[in-house]
Amino acid sequence: MDILQMLVVIAVLVLLVKPLGTYVYHVFSNEQNRLDKVYGGTEQFIYRLIGLKRREGMSWKVYALSFIATNIVLVAFSYLILRLQNALPFNPNAIGSMEPTLTFNTVISFMTNTNLQHYSGESSLSYFSQMAVIIMMMFTSAATGFSAAIAFVRGITSKGKTIGNFFEDFVKAHTRIFLPISFIFTLVLVALQVPQTLDPTLTVKTLEGAMQQIAIGPVASLESIKHLGTNGGGFFGANSAHPFENPSPLTNVIEILCMWALPAALPYTFGLYAKNKKQGWVIFSAMMCLFLVFLSVAYTSEKVGSPAMNTLGIDASQGSMEGKEVRFGIAQSALFTTVTAAATTGTVNNMHDTLTPLGGLVPLAEMMLNVVFGGKGVGLINMLMYAILAVFICGLMVGRTPEFLGRKIEPREMKLIAIAILAHPFIILVPTAIAFMTDLGQGAISNPGFHGISQVLYEYTSAAANNGSGFEGLGDNTPFWNISTGLVMLFGRYISIIAMLAVAGSLVRKQPVPETIGTFRTDNALYTGLLIGTVLLIGALTFLPVIVLGPVAEYLTLR
């Protein structure tokens, strides 16, 4: 029954890929279609409001500068609200202003689509802050990543000279994708008993006669966009393990599909842009193959349970249920864990700190690779980066100038890709080493030994991959952790996006090369295998030593 549950969810996901990918293509194709009749009037009003009179295409530099400038304005606005929330409306619980370094970490976290939380939402944020900062940036950060992905796809597939207009893409991502779909999901979640209210915290009497405070608020609206936008975070400290955020197995499946559907559909959108659907299915197949391997490891590890406990003769028929909700069980917990790390959402329905060593290795490895579907748009960008790299390696092996989608891959593109690939491990491993070398970092580790290594490594990997989940055994609400992870989130978000936009800007200016009998095909099973191999090879060479020091060593000590 467990395996059937997971297979049904995966089958539904696969069925959604084509219609959703086609819809996304029509949204950003800049060709007239029926969607213009529905959303055109609203969009024209927004364009006039922001002074966008002519929606001309941009160079990659102007496109990158536009989204960075937009993000800076939103960060400044959000910082002020969090620092002044005690004096702002919709604060019935009289919550005070947020500490400066925590405010810095929070606004960077949500603007970079990371949603790493060094605070508990129900006790640290007013309703106004939850709506005007957290939910607002969940929309804008997702739209930014989505826009960057579409611009990159245009650059490597278009015969024109531009990658599009950022502001037009940014507006369309809101009006045609995130706002309407999240509105529908909000209504569905409310119907399934997720709270949506501005009432203050409830005071109730328990069966024993004691008084208890029960936090409520606009939960459903946050839940819908946090999953749809692969944002993560949570209204409550317990995240999607909390019964008000995720009350039943049905809401659990809905939230899984909500955070997984758009990243899974983007490869098909890429195939439509490339005028070759097989190209899109190759990327999707590579992602799905990697995902199924990770899911198998997570489920098997949690189902078998802890080797140390099994040797004591303890009944392990239910698997390792520590830190998991009984209403979800092993199957839906393992699936949720694998999806949230694959899609870099960061929301959790179980505590990752209590996963078995190999079970905890799964989300950690997915974030290190950062290509298994990936976050909203960024995952596709990263996988296409590896796709270009795989073509380059094959070109070197046969002595030909590598080509991808009819364009030659030359030193400029490879230098930019090298920057993006090397930056990811650098901003993970260097801060991890610093944390262990300083008292400021070591003081936060709650579990010494190999598990403590995993805790610190997971924190910085989650920040660099813009995931936001954590092992939650780390005392991370200190100036050191707030500032260091804030900087890692910044670099993790913008270095790769800017580098890959530069690649798109370089490729879009090149004349297409006619396909010949010697052209290396990138739309078949052979290339799918080469792509998977490239991802795993680079990932293993980069991260295997530190993984051995953490989860692998912990696993071996429990044998």
Structural write-up:
The chain is mainly α. Helix content is 65%, strand content 2%. Strand 3 and strand 4 form a beta hairpin. It is globular, with a radius of gyration of 23 Å. The two termini are 29 Å apart.
Q: What's the β-strand tally?
A: 4
* Coarse structural class: mainly alpha
Radius of gyration: 23 Å
* Proportion of residues in extended strands: under 5%
The biggest beta sheet, please? 2 strands, antiparallel
Kindly state the percentage of residues in helix. 55-70%
Tertiary shape: globular
Order of helices and strands: HHHHHHHEEHHHHHHHEEHHHHH
The largest beta-sheet arranges its strands as 1-2
Distance between the termini: 29 Å
What's the number of helices?
Answer: 19
Could you list the spans in which at least 5 consecutive residues all have pLDDT below 50? none
Oligomer: single chain
Mean pLDDT: 89
Set out the fold topology.
Blueprint: H1 2-28, H2 35-50, H3 60-83, H4 100-111, H5 121-124, H6 127-157, H7 166-191, E1 202-205, E2 211-214, H8 219-228, H9 249-273, H10 277-304, H11 307-311, H12 329-342, H13 357-369, H14 378-398, E3 403-404, E4 407-408, H15 411-437, H16 439-442, H17 450-464, H18 479-508, H19 525-557
Antiparallel strand pairs: 1-2, 3-4
Helix pairs in contact: 1-9, 1-12, 2-7, 3-4, 3-6, 3-18, 4-18, 6-7, 6-8, 6-18, 7-8, 8-9, 9-10, 9-12, 10-12, 10-13, 10-19, 12-13, 13-17, 13-19, 14-19, 15-17, 15-18, 17-18, 17-19
